[in-house]
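thread from #wetlab-drylab

HS: before we spend reagent money on co-crystallization trials with fe (ii) ion, can we at least see a predicted complex? here's what I'd submit
DV: go for it
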Amino acid sequence: MKQVSPPREDPARETCSGAADANRRALVGGSVMGILASVIGSNGLGLAQAQTIAASGGPASDISDLWPEIDWIEDTTLRSQVIACWESAFRLSTLHPADLYNIPFSIKIPGCPVSFNAHKRCVAIVAYKSAKEMAGLFGAALPINLDVVLAGAILADVGKLLEYEMLNGKAVMSSHGRLVKHSVSGAHLALDAGLPDSVVHIVATHSGEGDLNERSTESWIVHHADFMCTDPFIAIAKKQLANR
Ligand SMILES: [Fe+2]
């Protein structure tokens, strides 16, 4: 069975690995076919195969461990696409699934006390449960696609796998990330994985960069869930800095 991650002691983890670099260059180049060719070339594995493996419980088990909420997506095709997108991102990244339990959800918040995985799962759960309550109370007055909300929330930060890289065991901003925000690279990854435009839209607009766009209802929900789980930590960090 193909392993998603090299062993943790692999020195390639400390800097951009050659394959990850080549794949990232293909992404920066903006060529969808370039990315696919690069991924297939370096790993001998295409998205179609990744989706098959995902469906068979192969490498996708890492993704399912990271995201138990994927099972809440009712549309099985959408579920497979979400898994394939995360798999694809890990192949392009120097980060590995286990890293997401350890790195902070934001490297911009000093002393950030919550892991990437804990934060992103919380955002997805808050978005999904809020959407469910809203759908129940507003009914036809505000149509909401719960699958789209959840898929979008789970994928919102998938681009951070390219925005960050591991250096000496810590997540730092990558040279790619300094130029291409995760909302952009994430949307590109989502398109490549065949996700519907409604989900790609959420990935592209969930963050502050989306303020210039006309967000869908589903994107508004993910945007606010993300910020309600983020802004308190920023406020606390600012207070702590001011009190030093
Ligand atoms: Fe984000």
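DV: Residues 26 and 33 are 9 Å apart (CA to CA).
HS: ok that's useful, forwarding to the group
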